From TrEMBL:
Keyword RNA-binding found: no
Pathway assigned in UniProt: Steroid metabolism; cholesterol degradation; Lipid metabolism; C21-steroid hormone metabolism
Protein name: Cholesterol 24-hydroxylase
Catalytic activity, EC: 1.14.14.25
Role: P450 monooxygenase that plays a major role in cholesterol homeostasis in the brain. By promoting constant cholesterol elimination in neurons, may activate the mevalonate pathway and coordinate the synthesis of new cholesterol and nonsterol isoprenoids involved in synaptic activity and learning.
Phylogenetic classification of the source organism: Eukaryota, Metazoa, Chordata, Craniata, Vertebrata
Compartment list: Cell projection, Dendrite; Endoplasmic reticulum membrane; Microsome membrane; Postsynapse
Leading EC class: oxidoreductase
Pfam families xref list: p450
Coiled-coil ranges (or none): none
């Protein structure tokens, strides 16, 4: 009995000691938060909710969670705060201090420089999704400049003009399959969910041109679109709700996200291995992005597990980024043209003048579709499908006269800047003439593909693909929006039309 009491006493003492250590750790964390508040509270920003200690501890985390839960777009909250507090706005997220920047001069200084890397918070949240490796150290997320530069150097040759010209055949071929699907719907007088259709096309294109694989999603069912959608939804929750995975109610969703990540990466591993085997056997292989990655990696002394993981990281990055954003841009473009008959008529006339009735669109034709380019740019102004980016501010910087100490995370949103009246008059009006060749260029307040050395590698690829698809659609079909659908946005990391842009399609009457 005495031994029992002795053990019980030791256990109680150990428990008290652990609780004391936890209390000290928590107290230290609270003091660290207080230090951060004192360091950055001179920067304008929304007040932290101080009703209870817990709300103060969470800072603006709860605000983001509630806003997202109610179906809001977090960038609308940034817009509201920017208009209230000015071109630099402080946001507290647990122990992270973020400054939202809408000052063009600071945007230029930070995004155009390699001195400001991708921030550690974003890298950590996108490296894994709920414990399953997702984007890892791929081109979008790589934080280390040398690692990023090595990968960018490998990829750059595959996006020069000569290479892009060679893709016109694939763009035309896949767009023709979409036209066939729309013809079937027109003949059957069925409604067309344009987002689903263009999503299939852009996924087909990236699979073919980057990895040499024919998915033919317009004619075959596949788990890929669902897997990509789940990964993107999981990414949003992982970024904006620190405690999401801890809620038992979210367990089925979390498991599906993990399984989706595994599906993309195991598929990528198989495609990479198949291509390596073909190359080792001396077989003829496509001169695509996958071959370039493997050849360039093979020039290094030897392939390590890290090299293999990096290839998979970039497989997932290209597979998602190479189709998701372009598909959403196309859907938004179709939606806005259907809502603006005068603009639709003008861009259709340009397509008729440049393309006529020919089926094969050439690279030179794209250069003559000037007004269509304006329409696509204006679409990205109001609906930048990849709406924001971030950088780690490793040194002190002055933004619009306000001193921002080193250590904060800089947040930049093309969505917010594109909807601010001080940059664009009547910003919610869809007006492609803002991007007329003679119009003044927006000064570092329009960056749907980011800016500087970390800007999107595939932006020319994406806009060429979008032009081919839109030109063929305008050439052959009239489309009208089905009444009753919402024009709201859905935030899945990228922005997409919530209702999918459901249209009635019919053949154009060229006799008119």
């Amino acid at each position: 009995m005495a031994v029992f009491h002795m053990i019980l006493g030791w256990t109680a003492q150990a428990l008290m000691f652990v609780l004391f250590l936890l209390f000290l750790a928590f107290l230290g964390y609270c003091l660290y938060l207080k230090h951060l508040h004192m360091k950055y509270d001179h920067i304008p920003g929304p007040p932290r909710n101080s009703v209870t200690f817990v709300f103060c501890f969470l800072s603006h985390t709860l605000c983001f969670s509630v806003h997202s839960f109610l179906g809001g777009i977090v960038h609308d909250k940034f817009l509201e705060w920017s208009e209230t507090y000015g071109p630099v706005c402080r946001i507290n997220f647990l122990h992270f201090v973020m400054v939202f920047v809408s000052c063009p001069e600071a945007t230029k200084e930070i995004l155009m420089s390699s001195k400001y890397p991708k921030d550690a918070f974003l890298h950590k949240r996108l490296f894994n999704l709920f414990g399953q490796r997702f984007l890892g150290n791929g081109l979008v997320t790589a934080k280390d400049h040398e690692l990023w530069y090595k990968q960018r150097r490998i990829m750059d040759p595959k996006y020069n003009n000569l290479y892009l010209r060679g893709l016109m055949g694939t763009f035309n071929e896949r767009a023709e399959k979409l036209m066939t699907s729309l013809s079937d719907l027109a003949e059957q007088k069925k409604e067309a969910n344009m987002l689903q259709l263009v999503n299939s096309v852009t996924l087909d294109v990236i699979a073919k041109v980057a990895f040499g694989v024919d998915l033919d999603l317009l004619n075959n069912s596949s788990t890929f679109p669902r897997a990509i959608e789940m990964c993107l939804k999981g990414m949003v929750h992982n970024l904006r709700d620190t405690f999401f995975a801890l809620n038992p109610k979210n367990r089925p969703f979390v498991n599906e996200v993990r399984e989706s990540c595994r599906l993309l990466r195991t598929t990528g591993a198989k495609w990479i291995q198949d291509r390596k085997t073909a190359m080792q056997n001396g077989d003829e292989v496509p001169k695509d992005i996958l071959t370039q990655i493997i050849k360039s990696a093979g020039k290094e002394e030897s392939m390590t597990q890290e090299d293999e993981d990096l290839m998979l990281d970039n497989f997932v990055t290209f597979f998602i980024a190479g189709q998701e954003t372009t598909a959403n841009q196309l859907a938004f473009c179709i939606m806005e043209l259907a809502r603006h008959p005068d603009i639709l008529e003008k861009v259709t006339k340009e397509v008729d003048d440049v393309i006529g009735m020919k089926q094969e669109i050439s690279y030179d034709d794209l250069g003559q579709l000037i007004y269509l380019s304006q329409v696509l740019k204006e679409t990205l102004r109001i609906y930048p499908t990849a709406p924001g980016t971030s950088r780690e501010l490793r040194q002190d910087i002055v933004v619009d006269g306000i001193h921002v100490p080193a250590g904060a995370i800089g947040i930049f949103s093309s969505y917010t800047c594109g909807r601010m009246d001080k940059f664009f008059k009547d910003p919610l009006k869809f007006d492609p003439d803002r991007f007329h060749p003679d119009a003044p260029k927006p000064y570092y307040c329009y960056y749907p593909f980011a800016l500087g050395p970390r800007s999107c590698l595939g932006q020319n690829f994406a806009q060429m693909e979008a032009k081919v698809v839109m030109a063929k659609l305008l050439q052959r079909f009239d489309f009208t929006l089905v009444p009753g659908q919402s024009y709201d946005l859905l935030d899945t990391g990228t922005l997409r039309p919530k209702s999918g842009v459901v249209c009635s399609v019919r053949y154009r009457d060229h006799k008119k």
